Amino acid sequence: MKLILACAALLCVSCAYEFDCPTDVHGDCIERRYAHPDCSYYFRCYDDPSGCIAIVIPCQDDLHFSPKYQECIHPYHANCTDSTTTSTTQFTPPPVEDVSAFSAARSYDWYGGDAIVYFDQVDVNLRECFKNGTTFVPGREGVYFMSFSGGIPSRTPVHIKIRPTNWPNYPSTIYRESTTAEDINMMYRTFLAGMSDTDYLNYKSFEPMESGESLQASFAGFSLTDMFHEVKAFYVAREEPFEFNQRIPMSRIFMDIEDNYNKTGREFIAPETGIYYFFFGAGQQSGKTNRVALQTWDEEFPKTEAELWMNSDSHNGLEMASRSTILRLTAGERAWVTAVEGPVESMVDHCQVYFGGFWYNPAHATTIAFAVHRTSPWQSAMPLDPVEFHEVGVNQGNAFNHAANVVIIPKSGYYYIELSIGSMPHTTLDVEILLNGNPETPENLGERIAHVSVESTNHTGVATSGRGLITHLWQNDILRLRANGLSGIFSDLNKQTTWMGLLLYEDYY
Ligand SMILES: *[C@@H]1O[C@H](CO)[C@@H](O)[C@H](O)[C@H]1NC(C)=O
Ligand SMILES: *[C@@H]1O[C@H](CO)[C@@H](O)[C@H](O)[C@H]1NC(C)=O
Ligand SMILES: *[C@@H]1O[C@H](CO)[C@@H](O)[C@H](O)[C@H]1NC(C)=O
Ligand SMILES: *[C@@H]1O[C@H](CO)[C@@H](O)[C@H](O)[C@H]1NC(C)=O
Asked: Where is each C1q domain found (predicted)?
């Protein structure tokens, strides 16, 4: 009622337009919002005792209504043509065009060889930094975060290489020699690189790669320099195996902006109180298992914040795995990577053992970060939708709704989303990140924005996989995870399974 009064009193110009609200086959009012001839208003239809009636509502702050998104958004994104005037204003895009980020995937298989992989599905490409479907060319000096994945065919080793120009042995490869997987596997890795204004990155896969409808092969990244206020980031790695069950000494410091990694103490010391994204990896020797954890202090005891547990011994050559998490640390708190069990493999060419991270300090967005963990395994013939998370680690901005086990996007913008996930012994892993839709409605489960799929079951123990991506999400979009039937997820109190996200760039309305 208030809206009608406000409309009548203030907006009689736009009230001059009539709108007949549509009804469905049962004659019931379809309560939706509809375009108005003047882009800065919209009609809202609702069921009133007097019938299905429309009221006119103005958009705030020079926004335009978008029927597609059912809300008032930046005129450039709304792309609405005003039919009340004859002017054809061209709206300039919001300043998002000034930051570098991209996210791409490939929808068909790759046959291997020393050539550059082409990505036909480019979802995000800000500043047009991803050129020709093949090459990340930021054209600006800065610190860049990268996430990439590949689908590995049965009985095939893996050698995927994304290396900055002039860095032949940069720790940025996925490398596996084992050929025992009898079906498709999926592997991923993340890394940080300092790049000059002439550097570029390509994705090369020397061995064949599987990528189809599930888009297992992906390549995404963003500029920390463009997105954050002050860049505080580090990236260290090991170039040889390590046999002991203690903190892993990292022999090479590839990046340590502002000196926050203590090589002797083998730990990162948080320079500020805030939210940190961390990633780490470990290699396994043929037939050997290991367990590597990211730890912090809990009073005087080490506490595991994330674990990579590779307890499968069926691999007949080198294996590796990677993962990430997000933590809130107070200034001076420490985080490190420990070999909890078994030897770890690492070599100068691939640096399977590594540790890195950055302070999440967005310059163009509200601070929205979440990291949620499972603390128990799941395995069933029936799907699990949504996948439940038992422990909420970080939930700045309340994006994660614990009661519903979904993420409800608080602000429209570009998000980095990542899933690190453990698989059960002798079992496939089949988990999708779904956007909107409804778990109860098979014909509308939602749009799949990522799929982590390990079809191979020839792993005698727990293994890990995952996927990172950058995507644009609208306020009130809902993300959830669905695990398909006949698959399994491994996680225990050491948190082998984590779902996380960060808002990188918020839409300016
Ligand atoms: C806006 O709409 C026009 C015509 O439908 C289309 O050519 C153009 O690509 C759209 N622009 C955006 C930013 O979506
Ligand atoms: C993109 O393709 C064009 C035409 O083939 C070529 O001239 C250009 O160098 C390519 N750019 C990059 C960054 O590879
Ligand atoms: C680095 O670690 C070593 C060994 O634990 C310690 O002696 C040293 O004080 C640490 N340096 C800093 C700057 O914290
Ligand atoms: C599974 O791996 C084992 C150990 O490497 C190998 O001997 C066996 O042939 C594999 N089984 C299948 C079904 O591929």
From this structure: 363-509
